Amino acid sequence: MLTMPIPEYLSEILDNVRAHTSGEVADYIPELKSANPHPLAVALCTVDGHIYSSGDDEIEFTMQSISKPFAYALALQECGPTEVFAAVAVEPSGEAFNELSLDGENRPMNPMINAGAIAINQLINGADSTVEDRVEKLRKYFSELAGRELTIDRVLAESELGAADRNMSIAHMLRNYGVIEDEAHDAVLSYTLQCAIKVTARDLAVMTATLAAGGTHPITGKKLLDARVCRLTLSVMASAGMYDEAGQWLSTVGIPAKSGVAGGLIGILPGQLGIATFSPRLNAKGNSVRGVEIFKQLSDDMGLHLMSTEPVSGHAVRSITREGDTTFIRMQGAMNFSASESFLHAIVEHKFQGNLVVLDLSRVLTFHSVAIRMIKEGLKRIRDAGFEVAILDPDDVLPDVRFSDGTVCSQIT
Ligand code: GLN
């Protein structure tokens, strides 16, 4: 049975960042102050529903601000963009997440800062909804995205409410300008309960993959959001998801993202995959220190930067066919992380017979470094399972045919 090298690669990345112990757990929410700072997890979910994870991927933590893009998507889906844009703008604020600020039309600058998120929360389930009905609607919808029943950490929400002067001021400001109708207390209560929904890194990877896939759930195949809603949500995440670190983030990592003060961080690669990390120590901007490091490495290694000019292409595995004793795996397009993931998935699923496996690269355009590593590792595993392997590479697109154990892959012409 062939196994996947991706979880091993993810564990390596966790090992690389484990030594980063700078930063502090959020302390303005009393219950978070005593959170265990050590957990570390990373999870990926492709738009085809393949999940890979490593580390403390089953530990639950509260979503906090990571709930904002999902609530925004639900509001867009329920109310449509016109109503949503009338309440909250889509301009990056370059400000801290809890800034008391409005734009020239007295709207919060964007739905990723607290002012915008409190206003968006109020759009869910109609203006006259009770707090409990509104929060239940969000919980149910988040659960559907995660593929399991999520629960709310009411003790944590209670503790946050006891110290929520800042968010209360924001809610009063929003009420003063007619952005929300509810009592400030109820608006903050509703938003705080939304933030206190508990998830694991794996849940978040699955939830984000639905946004990556244009609204189709990667596992159930259910259409949960319009593609346009996902596009809008990702756009706002790209420009404002990392608050006053958003510009730096877009230049270095280049993935639409959202962080939460409990230590979660999500990123979405449109059309490819959802990524989630968990590590509670935060930098001065309120973003997870090790989470940011993991994303930097993934983005570099995997060639995930959105502004990358390297070509991307779908359907990397063109066919797997057998002719006599030889199995041909025909690849096509640009080999990036997603392409090598589909290759690895295909070979793990395939029942190989005969004695020779040929990887045909004649229609491959380019190789990204992570794809070289993944594809060679996949081939080596086929060889270690007892088959002869060879590559057909007439244009020499694979620059290095040496396996990780030093042996060389044979080539055929
Ligand atoms: N509930 C938190 C707050 O409103 C969420 C902030 C965050 O995760 N950045 O302060």
Key terms for this structure?
single chain; 413 residues; Beta-lactamase; Transcription Regulator spoIIAA; 2 domains; five-stranded antiparallel beta sheet; five-stranded mixed beta sheet; 15 helices; 12 strands; elongated; binds glutamine
List the helices and strands and how they pair.
Elements: H1 6-17, H2 30-33, E1 41-46, E2 51-55, E3 61-62, H3 67-79, H4 81-87, H5 114-123, H6 131-146, H7 154-161, H8 165-176, H9 184-195, E4 198-199, H10 201-212, H11 227-240, H12 246-252, E5 257-259, E6 264-269, E7 273-278, H13 289-302, E8 317-323, E9 326-335, H14 337-349, E10 356-367, H15 369-384, E11 388-392, E12 410-412
Parallel strand pairs: 9-10, 10-11, 11-12
Antiparallel strand pairs: 1-2, 1-7, 3-4, 5-6, 6-7, 8-9
The chain binds glutamine.
